[in-house]
Amino acid sequence: KAGVTQTPRYLIKTRGQQVTLSCSPISGHRSVSWYQQTPGQGLQFLFEYFSETQRNKGNFPGRFSGRQFSNSRSEMNVSTLELGDSALYLCASSAWTGTDTQYFGPGTRLTVL
Amino acid sequence: AQKITQTQPGMFVQEKEAVTLDCTYDTSDPSYGLFWYKQPSSGEMIFLIYQGSYDQQNATEGRYSLNFQKARKSANLVISASQLGDSAMYFCATQRGTGKLIFGQGTTLQVKP
Question: DSSP for B51-66?
């Protein structure tokens, strides 16, 4: 089985721009979670989607949003980028309930200049 | 609220020796799970091992085992016969709601030849 894939792997943007990151879960997995990883704050949960519905949300401003499609692929969007949004963005998929083991993708490294 | 504490920012181990990475947790949930992930310098989070709070035995997966002491709220990862490829960052995590993992700050392990 193919693992979780994320595109793009690297991204450079400037302040004020917006960005969309994509995540394709493991085949058959229906839950997708997103995390932000920075040296200062560590790994922080952004949100989780299941069957196209957001079921859980972390403590991030409204500039961070996401969605999930009927094939379980997910996207996250960050609008009006700030320097502090520079981070590794990881997505993870799990089989069913969202409490199952999460399997992570390789991440998208976003740099905001 | 759930919290994971990893008190060892960095560890060194000689190749072929065993090493223990510490993790303590704080949760009020009667049922919970604990996870360990490995993050090489490439960035991808690799699932290693899972322990459920009601599991009677400590979890093992190949060279990885979990020393689970429920009364002490600790879930230490033991890596036996360390290999150079084990050099990475290791994270302990627990689940909080659907699809949300709470991570510790991580421990950097370096295996010396």
Answer: EETT-SS--EETTEEE
Tens digit of pLDDT per residue, chain A (113 long)?
Answer: 789 999 999 999 999 999 999 999 999 999 999 999 999 999 999 999 999 999 999 999 999 999 999 999 999 999 999 999 999 999 999 987 656 899 999 999 999 99
Q: Which residues of A touch B66 (CB under 8 A)?
A: none
Q: In chain B, which residue's Cα lies nearest the Cα of A88? A: B43
At residue A1, what is the residue type?
K
pLDDT surpassing 90 at residue B73: yes
Q: Across the interface, do A106 and B42 touch by the CB < 8 Å criterion? A: yes
CB B113 within 8 A of CB B13: no
Rounded Cα gap, residues B88 and B64, in angstroms: 14
Contact A67, A51 (CB under 8 A): no
CB A5 within 8 A of CB A23: yes
Dihedrals phi, psi of A12, to nearest 5 degrees: -120, 125
